[in-house]
Design brief:
Elements lengths: L10 H7 L10 E4 L6 E7 L6 E7 L2 E2 L3 E5 L4 H15 L7 E5 L4 E4 L6 E2 H6 L8 H15 L7 H10 L3 H11 L17 H9 L1 H16 L3 E2 L9 E6 L2 E6 L7 E2 L1 H21 L6 H19 L10 H28 L5 H4 L3 H20 L7 H10 L3
Antiparallel strand pairs: 1-2, 2-3, 3-7, 4-5, 6-7, 8-10, 9-12, 10-11
Helix pairs in contact: 2-4, 4-9, 4-10, 9-10, 9-11, 9-13, 10-14, 11-13
The structure holds 5-S-methyl-5-thio-alpha-D-ribofuranose and magnesium ion (3 copies).
Length: 393
């Protein structure tokens, strides 16, 4: 039949065809698309006792429209990533009920009883001690399982070969890891940042450091990544009295540097902190970095004795973790910068009134540059906090 782009009215029939829903007299569908790339629909019955989410990749970037074509094959990368995460960290992703490669559509658990972490934070919600720790743990579980520590060498080569995701990697190489530092039509910023945007484009040291990180992104196949682990890819809330964290949208997944996942999370935490600071809320830049790193490190160390290749000794582990930390700091910087003067800005800042948005964005930008350029000397969360406090925006 071929690829059909689904609209709200098509979803009941589609779910029935695919064997997910029988009673078409009792199904209500709404579109809840929110991300930059895809469409998402929620289907539920009147009693609210059944619900499903359908996510479909369009042949273009949703927020840009057909003028920015993008292969819908990216849904294959997402389905593959969910399979791997389901093995390594099944408690931290939505249940996947089916993948339809022909229509580039995933049918999955409805998470709408939970809240997007970004929205929760924008509305003044707190993290508690649980959320960042679980994110760190997820990164450790996925990365260890899909690294040369968790898999025999030959199986790893097969994973690398089947996990290529060239179009979405190129988006990251462009919008995160080069465009903000050159003139590009994707870039835009608040006029109150004109001077910093120009300064960043003229900063040759900054550009070389970003080139270094870009090359790490392009060549370091440490482990399977989520690939777009920002606070809009995380749902949080409570179920049956217990806290839950669910990570979704792994369509940018590929075998890359582990620090890219941690760095994206940290960047979004730090931008959220810049918002909170502008609004007068006291917050600690270090705490969520500390909790997520501690969650990552503790889980990685817990798994280390089970490694399949013991030529990698304990001394190597220390070096490896130290490199992951430093690269995470650098990638966090690049993600901050692109979210302020590049493509795809964050509501954390854009929903602030101008008189708050400009100073908060300036602080974020300066911190981003620090994290990129001085990542080697920022060896602890506290060092990042102290550096952040010393910046004059
Ligand atoms: C063209 S896509 C822009 C951004 O949206 C996604 O969520 C990724 O963060 C990507 O960089
Ligand atoms: Mg061997
Ligand atoms: Mg390119
Ligand atoms: Mg996304």
């Amino acid at each position: 039949m071929g690829y059909r782009i689904l609209d709200t009215d098509d979803i009941p029939g589609y779910l029935r065809e695919r064997g997910h829903w029988d009673d078409l007299d009792d199904i209500h569908v709404r579109e809840v698309s929110d991300g930059n790339l895809n469409r998402v629909f929620l289907a539920s019955n009147s009693a609210g006792t059944r619900s499903l989410a359908v996510k479909q990749a369009l042949p273009w970037v949703r927020v840009a429209g057909p003028s920015w074509p993008l292969s819908p094959d990216r849904s294959d990368a997402e389905a593959r990533a969910y399979e791997q995460i389901a093995k390594a960290a099944p408690d931290k992703i939505p249940a996947i009920h089916g993948y339809d490669a022909e229509n580039h559509a995933l049918v999955m658990e409805d998470l709408s009883d939970l809240r997007v972490l970004r929205t929760h934070l924008n509305e003044g919600g707190s993290y508690g001690p649980y959320i960042s720790a679980r994110i760190g743990e997820l990164v450790a579980q996925l990365s260890f399982a899909t690294s040369d520590f968790g898999m025999p060498s030959a199986g790893r080569k097969a994973l690398i070969a089947t996990s290529v995701n060239p179009e979405l990697c190129e988006i990251t190489e462009d919008v995160v890891l080069s465009e903000p530092y050159i003139e590009h039509e994707h870039n835009h910023w608040h006029p109150g940042l004109d001077d910093l945007a120009a300064e960043f484009r003229a900063d040759t040291r900054l550009r070389t450091e970003v080139a270094e990180l870009r090359h790490v992104f392009m060549t370091s196949g440490q482990a399977l990544l989520h690939g777009d682990l920002h606070t809009g890819s995380v749902m949080v809330g409570r179920r049956d009295g217990a806290e839950v964290v669910r990570v979704f949208d792994p369509e940018f997944s590929f075998v890359g540097p582990i620090g890219f996942d941690l760095g994206l999370y940290w960047a979004n935490v730090l931008v959220s902190e810049a918002r909170a600071h502008a609004l007068g809320a006291e917050n600690d830049h270090a705490e969520q970095l500390r909790l997520s790193w501690a969650g990552f490190e503790a889980e990685f160390r817990r798994l280390w004795p089970s490694r399949v290749d013991t030529f990698f000794d304990d001394a190597f582990l220390e070096r490896f973790l130290s490199r992951v930390w430093t690269e995470s700091v650098g990638f966090a910087g690049t993600e901050i910068v692109r979210r302020v003067i590049g493509f795809a800005h964050l509501t954390d800042l854009t929903t602030l009134a101008d008189d708050l948005q400009v100073p908060a964005s300036r602080r974020a930008l300066l911190l981003g540059r620090e994290l990129i350029v001085n990542r080697a000397e920022l060896a602890t969360p506290e060092a990042i906090r102290d550096r952040s406090h010393s910046l004059v925006a």
